[in-house]
């Protein structure tokens, strides 16, 4: 954990544990073991200090122009990191998940998508891509918890295992999902399965932000529909900050 962070309700900065060295390790080990054995967390860990931060736009007197930051106990965050480290040893996340995973980044996800597009372009084959946007899915995850990102990745991984056929290429970065196939019908069918499974878990596909792009498109390739509603078809899409184009080129990205 980084030093110099604002403290939570217990007023114990992370620097205390860093400075105490081995003594801190022994104390925290004993504390964490007691938490595990009793299955109860200290009350201070359940509290937080809510600090409003102005978004630097709009009326300063409007509450909607502020976002809340919760200051939590640093000791609890150390505890969560320990739990996460143990979970990662026993929980396997599929290779298609690039978000919140060690040694994976947005660059890797963008590169993987571009390689797939390039192969289809070189082979003069169509590639149908649907960029699925979830409606405020990750916004519902408590950001103040160090465990939240990994737990969210576990949920998305389990969901993807249920809806992803082996013949379909799917990639995720947290809640950003890309479904790709040389078959438009297969992409459309899988998109519907994603919608169904997401709604079972009280999540929704954002109809206005989900978009369809066809690489190396032939005449009369058609469109993709979700529950009878046509998904917006585009010639380019900004994926994780990088513009991918239906012609397979990188012109707009190079000009940045």
UniProtKB/TrEMBL annotation:
Q: Which domain of life is it from?
A: Eukaryota
Instruction: Give the range the annotation lists for the signal sequence.
Output: none
The record lists the membrane-crossing segments as none
Q: Which GO terms describe its molecular function?
A: RNA-DNA hybrid ribonuclease activity
Q: InterPro entries this protein is in?
A: DNA/RNA_pol_sf (IPR043502), Rev_trsase/Diguanyl_cyclase (IPR043128), RT_dom (IPR000477)
> For this protein, what is the EC number?
3.1.26.4
Residue ranges constituting the Reverse transcriptase domain according to the UniProt record: 1-244
Entry's Gene3D superfamilies? 3.30.70.270
One Pfam family name is RVT_1
Hey, which family's this protein in?
A: Belongs to the beta type-B retroviral polymerase family. HERV class-II K(HML-2) pol subfamily.
Stated name of the protein: ribonuclease H
User: In which organism is this protein found?
Assistant: Hemibagrus guttatus
